[in-house]
Structures are given as C-alpha cells and as structure tokens.
Amino acid sequence: MAVISHKYKFIYTLAPRTASTATADHLLKKLSSQWILSDHLLDEGKNIKVDKKHCTFSNLIEHEIIQKDIVKKYLTFVTVRNPFESLYSAWYKKKYTYTKLLKDTNSFVYKKPDFLKDMVYIKNHDFSDWVVKNYEKLAQDDIARHINGTYLNYTDRVLRFEYLNEDFEKLMQDYNIPYPGKIPVINITEGKPSDYRKFYTTKAREIIQKTYSLDLEKFSYDFNQV
User: Which residues 6+ apart lie within 8 Å of 47 measured at CB?
Assistant: First the structure.
C-alpha cells in the first residue's frame, strides 16, 4: 500500500522488510495521512494484482489508483535496507513466520502463486540453498540492480533502515514538514537471529554481492554491516 498526506503533500510507499509498517503507522498517526488503498486489488483469477500494503508508485499509476501528476507533484519517499539482511529476513518469514498461513486457504499467500511456491520450496531447504536457486542466474547476467528496484521509480528520497530516524528527521527538515518525533519500533520479526552473516555460505554471499551491487554502491552497504 501507500500512505498519502494532502496536507503536507507527500506519498510514502511500503517496500517489504524496511520498517515500512512502523514508518507508515507513524505517518498515519502524526502527519494527517491516510491509506491510498483499503484492500488488495485482485485480478480475474482472484490473485493479488496490487497489494494493499506493498505496492509501488508505478502500480498506483498503472492501475489508475492515483494520478501521475500527483505522484510527480508530491514528495515521494521509500525505505530501503541492506540486501544481505533483507533477504535473510524474507527467507526467515517464509520459513517460520508465515507457516501457519498455509492452513488458511483464504490467507494472502494463496493469492500470490509465486510466493506460495517459494514457501513450499523453503520448507525443505536452508537459506543458502534458497539464495542459489533464486538468485544465481541473476548474478550471472551482469545487470546491476536494486533489491526493491521497482519501489525506487518516481521516488524523490530514500530512508535507510539502518539510519531510519536520522534520515527521517532530515527529510522533514528539508521539506519543511513538522517533525513528529522518532519512528517507534514495531512489527519485529519474532525469533529471527540478529546476525544474518552466519547463515551465508561463501557462494551465497558472492551471489548477492553481484546481484544487488547497486544497493551496495548507492547506499554504502556491505556484508558486515550488522
């Protein structure tokens, strides 16, 4: 989804695993904001076409949920995260957090066929196996990319997960928006180990180093940034 404030003329989109839930919640409570979508936008097969929580500016424009000129006129921003940590978090959630949802055929995982297929694979494979399966070919194509690259389209500013409150305060200052205080920590993934590095094999690390080189270069991320 995305959060919009017509009073302060900004739009924030929620990139996965970047403290986006906490950021959106803070904006909604403190800066006269509202959700742009109240529910998933589904296709004819009842699969999710535009996610009510995680969607991009391009999604919003393409499906005429919001006008392109508004996106260009308003301040647009998104949060990002070190790809090494972000990917381990993605695997962990599919391996442990979302497992209970497999028992509920009405849950969102059954409305995302690729997501469901990935969860089934993860049940019997460790993290590095999953990295090799999903990212080795991307690492071999010599194309530099961002882990959440589609979220960066139409984006004016980026807030880094690792420096979230510092970046947020500066954003408010730069655009003359009243600073509402620090973003509280919420929606923590329960049980997830804090140090992702021990779950990476040398091969898995090299794959992600190549696949998401743009994130590492542009946002000054590295493998040991814990």
Answer: 111, 112, 113
Enter the DSSP assignment of 94: I
pLDDT digits (tens, 9 = 90+) for 141-188: 988 899 988 899 999 999 999 999 999 999 999 999 999 999 998 767
Distances (CA, A) of 171 to 23, 80, 90: 13, 15, 27
CATH number of 2-218: 3.40.50
pTM equals 0.85
Question: CA 92, CA 75: separation in Å to the nearest integer?
Answer: 33
Counting every residue, how long is the chain? 226
Report which residue type is found at 49. Answer: K
| Dihedral class, residue 32 (left if φ above 0, else alpha if ψ from -120 to 50, else beta) | left
Please state the separation of Cα 101 from the chain's center in Å: 20
- Amino acid identity of residue 152, one-letter, is L
Alpha helices in the chain (DSSP H): 20-30, 57-62, 68-73, 83-92, 113-122, 127-140, 149-152, 164-174, 202-211, 213-218
Q: Which of 10, 14, 6 is nearest to 59 (CA)?
A: 14
Query: From CA 78, how far away is CA 94, in angstroms rounded?
Result: 23
